[in-house]
Amino acid sequence: MGKLRPEKEEHLAPCHTRSQSGQSWGSTPGLLAPPLPCTLCPPRPRSLWNLLLLLWTFLNCGLGGNAQGLGEWTPWGSWSRCSSSCGRGLSVRSRRCIRFPREELCWGDTHEYRLCQQPDCPPGAMPFRDLQCALYNGHPVLGTQKTYQWVPFYGAPNHCDLNCLAVGHDFYHSFGRVLDGTPCSPGAQDLCVAGRCLSAGCDGLLGSDAREDRCGRCGGANDSCLFVQRVFRDAGAFAGYWNVTLIPEGARHIRAAHRSRNHLALMGGDGRYVLNGNWAVSPAGTYEAAGTRVVYTRATGPEETLRAAGPTSQDLLLQVLLQEPNPGIEFEFWLPRERYGPFQAQAQVLGWSPRQPQPREVEPQPLESPTVIPPRTPIPTPEPCPPCPDTRGRAHRLLHYCGSDFVFRARVLGRVRQAQETRYEVRVQLIYKNRSPLRALEYVWAPSRCPCPPLALHRDYLLAARRLISPDGTQDRLLLPHAGYARLWSPAEDSRVRLAARHCPL
Fold first, then answer.
1. What is the DSSP string of 326-383?
2. How many angstroms separate the CA atoms of 229 and 226, rounded?
């Protein structure tokens, strides 16, 4: 791009020294003494005062006057016209560096280049590089009177040199640099600028390193969107189509994957299947859906992957066609913050995983003949649970609210003790804090046969839970820590937890 040294430097009046504050003594009103001109350097010392004056003059006009700071840029000029009359081109703008005689040059570029897009070139139009080579057709080159017909040659090291091949001969000639705005190679997005091949950042400037973040913001820091990542583990009681998740409008960087004989299915907002619908398996490939391209791959083993860059222009519904027990379907996408609330409401209305099949079902399998179950040895009665520790108080509430991934109101529907764990089935009613979506029905695990605090059936609680994913990724749980935060819901408890939210915002 542009060089650090400006094309033209402008110097102001000579020997205007500057104070330590960076202001020009000669231009600031109200100063006690004007600067001494350099023509007085150095004066003849006659006393101690003259000696000090001599030292000050040398420091400002002689010895210390080599560099007094950086110059200042003028504002950018207007952008030039596009370099191309059709297709992609570039426009340029420039600025100048204004500095004092002993100031350093300005840091930065004198020129900036940006992409400009003109209407598409008509069919059969000559490419820009071909046109530049054709300018030398019929003209003598190489120091002889012999002429040639020239076409571009792309085998040379520097793609921004005008390398042209002599038609019907086995040599090429370099005519210098190509014109600015010439594509580096056929079909490339990069353009040549001042002999260098430059790509454009998301800000449209050539040579810029600005890139879009996961939210689609140029130069952003992923702070305007939320990352949704879950594992769908519903086993399914029958073969057929099961809803996995809603992929809302505006989603980006979508990915879903699993390893099984089941098949991912994608349905558009109009109710029509994009792939693997109507009990038919689609071939691997790229599909157009909701304004983006969906890449569907199926490996030789039992593995399927679905990817889309987004953003989606309408809602999509991800389903799974179950043919065997579901080992887990991982899915993730990035969603703008303002769309997360509506998405969560839609997901809860959807039930996230409704237990209704598609109209078509598989034929029921014949039941096996009953077997005689031998009598079991009586199981000893477990020891009674010890009392739970006292977990009341504001400090305890703040500790668990701030350290949790989920805070929500839920009704306990069921309880199952499994080995040294207790699993609660709850219906989520109100969400105060969540780092990823919650389903309408969730399992909450407590790491003990005697969980503290215990949850009673058919009662409403305020719960603070953490997300726990096993190292191998096969388990994704909501964990209620021992002596954690579980309170019977009441209007007073609702007020307390909302007050805690002010100290620990989501």
1. ---EEEEEEEEHHHHHHHHHHHHHHTSS-S---S--PPPPPPPPP-PPPPPPPPPPPP
2. 10
The yes-or-no verdict on residue 442 having pLDDT over 60 is: yes
Ordered alpha helix ranges (H), 295-336: none
Q: Which of 284, 295, 346, 292 is nearest to 317 (CA)?
A: 346
Give pLDDT tens digits for 130-139.
Answer: 999 999 998 8
Q: Are 6 and 105 in contact (CB under 8 A)?
A: yes
Alpha helices per DSSP H over 58-177: 128-134
d(CA 97, CA 105): 7
Element (H or E) spanning 1, and its range?
Answer: none
> What's the N-to-C CA distance of the chain in angstroms?
43
What span, in angstroms and rounded, lies between the C-alpha atoms of 444 and 366? Answer: 35
What are 220's two structure tokens? 């952003």
Contact 427, 410 (CB under 8 A): yes
- What is the DSSP-derived secondary structure letter of residue 420? T
Nearest to 408 by CA among 336, 329, 348, 449: 348
Q: What is the mean pLDDT of the chain?
A: 77
**CB 195: neighbour CB atoms within 10 A?**
12
Q: Which residue has the higher pLDDT, 32 or 382?
A: 382
Q: Are 253 and 295 in contact (CB under 8 A)?
A: no
In order of 133, 162, 361, the CA distances from 147 in angstroms are 13, 17, 78
Chain centroid to Cα 416, Å, comes to: 41
- Per residue in 43-75, pLDDT (tens digit) is 444 556 566 655 555 555 444 445 566 788 999
For residue 64, the model assigns a pLDDT of 44
Dist. CA 494–CA 144, nearest whole Å: 93
User: Among residues 163, 73, 84, 141, which one has the least CA distance to residue 109?
Assistant: 73
What pTM value is reported for the model?
A: 0.48
- Bigger pLDDT: 437 or 473? 437
pLDDT at 225 over 80: yes
* Residue that wins the pLDDT comparison between 290 and 24: 290
Q: Does the structure show a pLDDT above 90 at 417?
A: no
Q: For residue 410, name the pLDDT band (cuts at 50, 70, 90).
A: very high
**How does DSSP classify residue 26?**
G
Burial class of 401 by CB neighbour count within 10 A (0 to 12, 13 to 18, 19+): buried
**496 Cβ partners below 8 Å, 6+ apart?**
394, 397
* DSSP-based three-state secondary structure for 492: helix
Q: In which region does residue 296 sit, left (phi positive, over 0), alpha (psi from -120 to 50) or beta (all else)? A: beta
pLDDT at 268 over 80: yes
